[in-house]
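Reopening this ticket.

The earlier resolution said the output was attached, but the attachment link was broken on my side. Pasting everything inline this time so it's all in one place.
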Amino acid sequence: MQTTAIETAHPPDQSVGASARPGRHAARAAVPVRPWLQPVLIGLVLVAAFITCYVGIQRNPQPHRIPVAVVGAGLALDVDAALGESVEVHRVADVAAAKAALGERDVVAALTGSGSKLTLRTAGANGRSTTTAVQRLVTAYAQGADRPLTVTDDVPLTRYDTNGLAGFYVAFGVSLAGFVLAQNALGLSRLLPLRHRFTLLAGFAAAAGTVAAVLAGPVLGAVPAPLLPLAATLSLLAAAAAFTTKLLGTYFGPVGIPAATLLLLTVGNATSGATVGADMLPAAGRAVSALLPPGAAVRAITDLSYFHGSRVGLPLITLAAWVIGAALLLMARQRRSRTAAAAAPAVPAPA
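Inline output:
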């Protein structure tokens, strides 16, 4: 009787199988989708953004209000009417004023007339795309007016940077170094207090900027800027990239690093004005070019290298603002975390 009761309560081969099989099906059904979907979407967004920015911007660049100094009221009116929105005519009194504007980077070219002849003075240091666009526009005007044109390069590129891309590659390398360091620093949150992580980022930025300046300047001769101002500029760029990457990673977690990649290494470098001049960028690119760290750094490097630092102030302020702003936001985040931890009720210790 007892044996029968036991068999009835536990039918053979059902208790174990019935409990195991549903468990396997439940485990299969509980596989989360997000760990698979999120990295795939992030990768697709990054590759689409990279190709759109770098290839799309260079696909069909168009000049937009490129600043050109023109000597004489009559010639200025004619050029303005003929070239329209492609150039922004700056009328100057004489050749000396035109040369001064070109040397101080107020304009990218200067046009003067003598009798039936025209002379176009360019600054090759402003980049090949911008210089070529100005020459093409003025050549078309001169042919239409049936006036012979002579072109000279008053501010040529150094012999070791004939394509004018050295500043871009230096800025890209320094930005990448700061980005990679910040990624590593994100993993040190439990090991180092915030002030020590700040010291790490700032110290590395100074070292990276100095090494890059020495290599690009005295060693390779591709960036003819004074060493100390160049090192300071590149150090600010490395710090801006590092602090911004750490800020985004701290606030947004796993999505923060792709966001920094998109902001700094993709959009920032593509719109920096080196591969395609700032005056040749689409409207959206022109709007952000000087505001992002890579664009500010490229402008500062060019100003220091070829224009005696005449317009270096605003780019340096931009870089410093990124560093200070990111640092302040990181400190505010830590302060809020400490306040929340202090306000949380204490968990009683087990008896």
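Reporter confirms the inline version is readable. The mean pLDDT is 88. Residues 166-338 form one domain.
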